[in-house]
Amino acid sequence: MNEATRKTAFVFAGGGSLGAVQVGMLRTLLAAGERPDFVVGASVGALNAAYFAGAPTREGVKKLEQIWCGLRRVDVFPITWASAFGLLRHPDNIIDPSRLRRVIETHLAFSRIEDAKIPLHVVATDLQGLAVALSHGLAVEAILASAAIPGIFPPVEIDGQILMDGAVAASTSIRMAAKLGALRIIILPTGYACALKEPPRGAVAKTLHAITLLIAWRLMNDLEHLPDWIDVHLAPALCPLDISPFDFSASRYLIERAAENTQKWVERGGLTRRALASELAAHRH
Predict the structure, then answer these.
(1) pLDDT tens digits for 51-100?
(2) What angle do CA 147, 152, 157 make, to 5 degrees?
């Protein structure tokens, strides 16, 4: 197939506060001349993918960087006495998603998914554990559904379907990108805290850490089973890393380190060849 006709997709994985690394990756990828035909995102990756789809430029990425550097844990996971009393009224979820909704509504440049400047596909999970691609409709609702960590945030009903976090689907956003027609896929992983010396403290922190482990291993499985004709490139995750996906205080550090690591990867030919076994092994560890 002619190079010009091959659709390229950016795939944004989930990972809580570690989603900041995707901003550094984006900065380097755009500087290297990469421009995706469409983007796919799940969980926090859905938020990053949506913002990027609305402003797919270097200036847009700079603004996304400012947003991340201004985020605090309470903006996403407001665990307060009020939320504790709220748990008594709504025992199915720990956190009220109203603050996360406010973050999304404040910074997103469009209201409907189909109004993004480049095609956007938000991945959520249905009650059977199957991935659902949300490619039209209200963007805020789609992102909230994709980020609805079971037990932490309430599920979201869209078009009669009860949906939850896209990161827990039986297959990852990589397979969804292939299903949507991508023949070249660039994956922006968040990685996980591979160098923690003790378990995270608190129920939400423990849940987020477990989900990032699930995402990383499922990503590896899907990569190993992609068809040979799909050209896949895996941007480098950060490891060693001892930052919890519940910690929003290190965004600047994560962005800069990811930008530097991705630049070295580009210089080694990361965008001109398929993911090598050595890169998969590095991501695995």
Answers:
(1) 999 999 999 999 999 999 999 999 999 876 555 555 556 566 788 899 99
(2) 55
Q: Is the dihedral of CA 175, 181, 185, 188 positive or negative?
A: negative
pLDDT in tens, 134-143: 999 999 999 9
Question: Residue 138: beta bridge partners?
Answer: 112
Cβ-based neighbour number of residue 249 at 10 Å: 11
Q: CA 72 to CA 114: how far, in whole Å? A: 29
Does the pLDDT at position 3 exceed 90?
A: no
Burial of 92 (0-12, 13-18, 19+ CB in 10 A): exposed
Which parts of the chain are beta strand (E)?
A: 8-12, 38-42, 120-125, 131-134, 156-158, 161-163, 184-188, 231-234
Specify the pLDDT at position 93: 73
Rounded-to-integer distance, Cα 241 and Cα 254, Å = 10
pTM: 0.92
Q: Mean of the per-residue pLDDT values for the chain?
A: 90
Residue-wise burial string across 71-82, b where 16 or more C-beta atoms lie within 10 A, e elsewhere: bebeebbbbeee
Residue from 219, 223, 199 nearest 209 by CA? 199
Contacts of 245 (CB under 8 A, 6+ apart): 15, 16, 17, 18, 190, 192, 193, 205, 208, 209, 211, 212
- Are 10 and 49 within 8 A, CB to CB? yes
